[in-house]
Amino acid sequence: MAKKIPLRQCVGCGEMKGKKEMLRVLKTPEGEICLDTTGKKNGRGAYICRQKECLQKARKNKGLERSFKMSISPESYDMLEKEFDQLETE
Predict the structure, then answer these.
(1) What are the structural domain ranges in the chain?
(2) N or C: less crowded end of the chain, CB within 10 Å?
(3) Dihedral sign computed on CA atoms, order 45, 49, 57, 83
(4) What is the pTM assigned to this prediction?
C-alpha cells in the first residue's frame, strides 16, 4: 500500500500540494510570525508555496490573518519576504 502524502493548502494561491513542497509559516506562542524551515517548531503553522507570488497573494487576500486568526503587521510580511529571498539565494 502506498504511503499517503500529507497535503497542505497554500494560503496564497489555494492549491493543495505535498507538505514537503511547501514552506511553513509559523505563529509562535508569543505571537511572532516567522518561517519554519525545519517544519518542526512549536506553534501554529500555515503553509505557502515556495513562489514569492504566493506570499504576495497571501498578503493581499489576508490568507495568513485568517489562518492565525490575528492581524499581521506589514513589518512581519516584509520580514517574511526577506526570509523568502534568503531561501531563494541559498
Answers:
(1) 7-89
(2) N
(3) positive
(4) 0.86
